[in-house]
Amino acid sequence: MSIRLIALPLAAILLMGTAPSAQAPDDVLVFAAASLQTALDDLVAPAQRAVGVKFRVSYAASSALARQIESGAPAHIFLSADLDWMDYLADKKLIRINSRVNLLGNRLVLIAPKSGTTTLAIGPGFALAGALGSDRLALADPAAVPAGKYARAALTALGVWDSVAGKIAAAENVRAALLLVSRGEAPFGIVYHTDAVADRGVRIVDTFPETTHAPIIYPAALTPHAPPAASRLLEFLKSDAAWAAFAKQGFMKPKGA
């Protein structure tokens, strides 16, 4: 039975990579954006049956994972929630360029706790600041984390960012932002559509127009030291069987695919 890791500290990952007995030769270590957790957890068993590959996943913000790979963490596959962090590793020759593929797409939504009744229609200058009052808007860190960067871009395009910039509860990743809303600790949050449908504690208030932010694309690639088993796993993640699992969680085909 495979082990699924969640946001391992860098020191632990590095130790795991240096201990010969920590990982069997055919095991694959995947570093994946936090928003992929529900879908990838569901694919562990099907992947083992289909291609005979056991894999483990470390989930965190794409920014954190890319920096861990840069620092020597022994990931074999990197699944990012945006193109920027994949480009970051590509520039440092830390992925195999010929393995890179745009795997998935997503949408950006405004959420509120399930028990709430407040409604807001997203549009130019919409009254998000007023709806927040003295409370905060839950976002993944807009300075680095893809979901937060998309959110900031969308709010800026709509002319709303300046009015809410001082009311941001910046979380370490999109699932942490989701949790703030699900627990009722923030009245609104901005997350991916797939995160919202994965948590019964929230409701989708509205969806941001795709024209307000760059296309949400999840690229995947092998790292330079990835074993053959990682190549087989990546091929499986591109298959129709894997796509069915991703689509079930609300992912879309990436723009341009």
Polypeptide structure, described:
The protein has eleven helices and eleven strands. Helices cover 38% and strands 21% of the residues. The radius of gyration is 18 Å and the shape is globular. Helix 2 (37-51) links the parallel strand 2 and strand 3. With 257 residues, the protein is of the alpha/beta class. Helix 2 (37-51) packs antiparallel against helix 11 (240-248) and helix 3 (62-70) runs parallel beside helix 4. It has two domains: 5-105 and 217-248, Periplasmic binding protein-like II (D-Maltodextrin-Binding Protein, domain 2), CATH 3.40.190.10; 108-212, Periplasmic binding protein-like II (D-Maltodextrin-Binding Protein, domain 2). It has helices spanning 10-18, 37-51, 62-70, 83-91, 128-132, 146-157, 161-164, 174-182, 193-198, 228-237, 240-248; strands at residues 5-6, 27-33, 54-60, 77-79, 101-105, 108-113, 137-140, 168-171, 188-192, 202-207, 217-222. A six-stranded mixed β-sheet has the order 1-3-2-4-11-5. A five-stranded mixed β-sheet has the order 8-7-9-6-10, with helices on both faces.
